[in-house]
Amino acid sequence: MRVPTGFTDSLTPIAALIEWLQPQRVLDIGVGNGRMGFLAREYGHQPWHPRARGDGVEVHGIEGYEPYIGDLQRSIYDRLLIGDAVEVLERMAAEHQRYDLAIAADILEHFTPQEARRFLGQCLAVADLVAVATPRTFFEQADEENPFETHRSHWPEHELARAGATAVLSRGDSLVVLFGDAELSSQYLASRRRRLRHRLLPPALVELTHFTLTRLRLRQARA
Q1: 135 forms bridges with which residues in the sheet?
Q2: What is the mean pLDDT of residues 183-196?
Q3: What topology is assigned to 8-180 in CATH?
Q4: Which of 193, 164, 196, 191 is nearest to 177 (CA)?
Q5: End-to-end alpha-carbon separation of the chain, Å?
Q6: Rg of the chain over CA atoms, in angstroms?
Q7: What is the average pLDDT across 117-127?
Q8: Where are the domains of the chain?
Q9: Whole-angstrom Cα distance, residue 2 to residue 17?
């Protein structure tokens, strides 16, 4: 079965966020072909990273259309839940499930505006940060076999801000934004600005800075 997918420009911003955050638990809402779950699996635990915790990353997924689920998805996710996303999230919140990061890629536009705000509220009930990717330009989409694929709303940047977005990560074919912990969002944006400055510095200075920071981290680890 062909599984619809999203624009490629949402992949790098979300992969970079996962790598920086080093989450222990990730929830991918709207699994589809599993691409966001794969990013969480690939970048969610890197032992060398200063933010790394525990022994690995646990990746769960929610999918509303069971025929999409096959061996590929089962190999990526530790746990898969089938059902309406809002209803599943409500049950998870009642069970006090908690995630460092929830990813809602190419799903917000499938709700009506009112339903989408309820959905975001349920995401925030189970996750510290919620990464949302949604098409920047509205286009019609429908699937007779899977009603979840119908586009029912459009989310330009100002509407995402009104809904509570705390940071914008990318503006391309997709808008990628964060909801949730504003302090954590600010820390991530600050780390991105530092990385950009390093790219603009002379290579020798960048190498010296990296060497100095590595030595400092080694001393702190031994202390």
Answers
A1: 174
A2: 86
A3: Rossmann fold (3.40.50)
A4: 164
A5: 55
A6: 18
A7: 97
A8: 8-180, 185-223
A9: 28
Q: How would residue 65 be classed by pLDDT, with cut points 50, 70 and 90?
A: confident
Contact between 99 and 57 under an 8 Å Cβ cutoff? The reply is: no
Residue with more model confidence, 94 or 142: 94
12 CB-contact burial (10 Å; exposed 0-12 / middle 13-18 / buried 19+)? middle
Tokens of 199: 């790219």
Yes or no: say if 35 and 8 are a contact pair by the CB < 8 Å rule: no
Reply yes or no on whether the pLDDT at 173 is more than 70: yes
The H or E element containing residue 183 is helix 182-200
The length of the chain, given as a count of residues? 223
> Residue 147's pLDDT is what?
72
Tokens of 71: 């061996």
* pLDDT average, residue stretch 25-38: 96
Report d(CA 162, CA 24) in Å as an integer: 29
Q: How many CB atoms lie within 10 A of CB 4?
A: 13
Residue 195 has pLDDT above 70, yes or no: no
Asked whether the beta carbons of 75 and 51 are under 8 A apart, the reply is no
pLDDT at 143: 72
| Residue listed under structure tokens 């996962």 | 18
